[in-house]
Amino acid sequence: MIHTNKLAAGGLFPEIVLTDLRDRHYTLGKPGGGASWQLVVVYRGRHCPLCTKYLNQLEGYKEQLAEIGIDIVAVSGDSETQLQEHMNRLTVSYPLLYGLTEGQMKDLGLYISVPRSDQETDHNFSEPGLFVVNEQGAVQVVDISNNPFVRPELEALMNGLSWIRNPKNNYPIRGAAPY
Question: Structurally, how many domains does the chain consist of?
Fold first, then answer.
């Protein structure tokens, strides 16, 4: 039996510091640019064409997310060199970070896959995960998948986050009831 440790909705997001290609360090879940929340997108890596497509589509929502106080960061277990190579297929302006370790993947409760061949990649990698971290550092929204075919549709995600961030709705963290 395989056991995974999923992050609880409403729980504190773990402190993970990663680097971008300009050698700037980011703490996941700590928003920048005047935002109070952060969208953390974990993607499989440069080998995944679905991830490339998703990241490029996410760029189209960056301004809308900023308007509701949410910034974006995307991370993978790729190396610096792999991220540099991936940049040729990406058209994004939000931070892309590399070097997520297998231990950090487990801390985030992500599913981890073994490459099918050396042509895919040279390291175990995480399957997709998406986390929205609020101003208290708590997990407001979480979506974890075991394959690249299932992840939040971006328009629906945007509409939901706009609803949650509207103070008139007083929308609590869902799924945070004690067991």
Answer: 1
